[in-house]
Amino acid sequence: MPWGRAPRHTPVCAHRVPDVRPPRFPDPRPGHDPVMAKADLADHRRPEGATDATVEAVGKLSEAFEAVEELRGKLYGLHRLVGRADFQVEEACELLRKAGHEELAEEIETELMGRNLLAGRWTFQIVEEFDDGYYATFSQFERKVRDTLMEGRRHVFEAEMKADRRTHGEAGHEPEPGRTD
Fold this sequence. Notes:
The chain has five helices and no strands. The protein has helices spanning about 35, 50-100, 100-110, 125-150, 155-165.
């Protein structure tokens, strides 16, 4: 953990853990100015009047949306894997026929190949329902909160965390590509 910073997020757990962050201590790094640190990335600077609590709340909603984005990727992965498995079942049935197991191949093709993953749905229908329902609603609220409270700026919380955690003037700790301080 860098000097002067307490963890901002509690661990993700199955139950709520009380916030037991230690108190903040003065930053002993020479020349480190936490106020200037917040100004590192102009496109990610907090809007005038935005409080720490607001930045943290918007950051938490964005973090939750990132989890939903990851979930969406896994859902598309499921869609692709189930499709691949279905074609592999078809190939297996062809091989079973070639090996003289016509009746077993026919039974697998009838009962398994092309089967719905959930009642009445192939995976493309599940993906579409997720995209049009939960994902679209979550995305709209994340955008609305960001537009309303952060003037549309993304990752303000993370930009401030980067500014606070990086070592100013150190190679590999630049505020953005091609810019040194």
